[in-house]
Specification:
alpha+beta, two-stranded antiparallel sheet, 5-stranded antiparallel β-sheet
């Protein structure tokens, strides 16, 4: 037999919002972005952890590996980020009290790869006359993980270590190059 049908592990791959509940995420990357109109934000790319299917069957178990992007916008009045909101994010990520953050790159680096727990809600968003449902977790919805031992498997099926952790959308682990006269697959 080549294989047998088994649909129990199929996941919802819709682009709709995550259902309401508490989810455990891993921060894949953090970067600063800007809209065409010039509004700036810090964007968190979060992945629902796939190592908690049994511990959290109704949230992580059903939606593991789903991505969620969360933006923290600069305030127009001050052209600065709300520092208290950044404190919520860092506290949830388990960053020690008194840790100096000298640059935005320091903030991005210290946050990348950290597990966090976020309470997700669903809200209506109206834009150009069209209403859709979205997830927009507030900074105070972020909490420290209840599962600090991370065994999340990235698409390579290898556990992520600090040296392999993606930073600002880039991974610093270099692929192995074929030795000798081996042909490249591309």
């Amino acid at each position: 037999m080549l294989f047998q049908t088994n649909y129990k592990d199929l996941q919802d791959h819709s682009y709709g919002p995550l259902p309401e509940g508490d989810y455990e995420f891993i921060i894949k990357s953090v970067a600063e972005n800007a809209t065409k109109s010039g509004a700036e934000s810090i964007q968190f790319n979060l992945i629902v952890r796939n190592d908690l299917d049994q511990a959290m069957p109704e949230t992580n178990g059903k939606y593991h590996n789903r991505q969620l992007w969360v933006d923290e916008w600069k305030r127009r009045a001050t052209n600065q980020y709300e520092v208290n909101n950044l404190m919520y994010f860092m506290q949830a990520a388990g960053i020690s009290e008194g840790t100096p953050i000298n640059t935005m790159e320091d903030f991005f680096d210290i946050m990348t790869g950290k597990p966090v727990r976020i309470h997700i809600t669903v809200e209506d968003n109206t834009y150009n006359g069209k209403t859709t449902q979205v997830n927009r977790p507030a900074p105070w919805d972020w909490q420290q993980t209840k599962f600090p031992q991370v065994n999340h498997q990235w698409k390579t099926n290898k556990p992520v270590t600090g040296a392999q952790m993606p930073t600002n959308g880039q991974t610093f682990t270099m692929p192995q190059q074929p030795a000798g006269n081996e042909k490249l697959p591309f």
